[in-house]
């Protein structure tokens, strides 16, 4: 292992479509498991009688993700130059994701084995969070400024495609054939990215030593506009979206929907438009700039969340609920693409994984806590109260985002 971190990638543009193939594979397989844990498993546990309060507690497992900035400098600093700096992380981590998924197979009634299931899921989230550091860093280095909109569109689109399978298809498989086939499907698909990563050859890069201390980790916030973007705008934007997203699965279960129906509508049908929305948002960023797409994403999120109110009030028309969920997921995708793109603008090439991870971690921490609080609060103020609060937060985050972009001129 080397003790140096690579900086600007040489020959990245010559890789052409290979860059985007790798990005798609990494983020698709990453979100197979994450989509299952955040959407599918929640529905399965609720169907098994798990309380909303317990589901809220389980959501806090996701706090591992925003804490990943603590070990992100290690991923940037140590790696095999011969095998490929980030490739030497991605191969074992991808294998770890497969192994932890397989470790879930003995617990065919997960609601009756919450202890070991939560422990294994926590390990999976740890592996996926670390894989995300390496994947993000490699993506930053492979994409030029003009490619970031499209690259992040593919990244977010891959995430949602993974959610379609992990949060939708896997639930249908579980409902029809049981726990083991569902987990084996996820493990098999997650393993497919191994071949793509192994076949990929990281281009040679110039090397710059960067110490992995806390002071160096926080230097990214010294850039103009970075602190207000990461600590104010993005958290509000994400909290509003996360709060609405968190209540969908339990609300559908409480409305009497079968797991198969939830998997098809919430996990598969509703996530499919998000893939197209993410790709479209990436193209629009190149044409319109960051600020306009930020406004578009916030406006769409507010309107789409309003469309979920009938579900919160117990009106569960299949057609209306499906349309509302499709709109919500598409709006969420647009918001994610523009946020990731601006975060990537702030990430410096000599500490790409650390910077990008640090920038996203604070907002993620708040959004995971918000999701946990939302499920708990739903027991007291109802799903409708939670949705109204999420709309207010999204609109506030959008307004502050526009002000930030005008003031700091991040429009490229």
UniProtKB/TrEMBL annotation:
The keyword RNA-binding does not apply. Keywords: Membrane, Transmembrane, Transmembrane helix, Transport. InterPro entries: AmpG_permease/AT-1, MFS, MFS_trans_sf. SUPFAM superfamilies: MFS general substrate transporter. The keyword Cytoplasm does not apply. One of its GO terms (molecular function) is transmembrane transporter activity. It is a multi-pass membrane protein. It is found in: Membrane. It comes from the Bacteria. This is Major Facilitator Superfamily protein. It comes from Janibacter indicus.
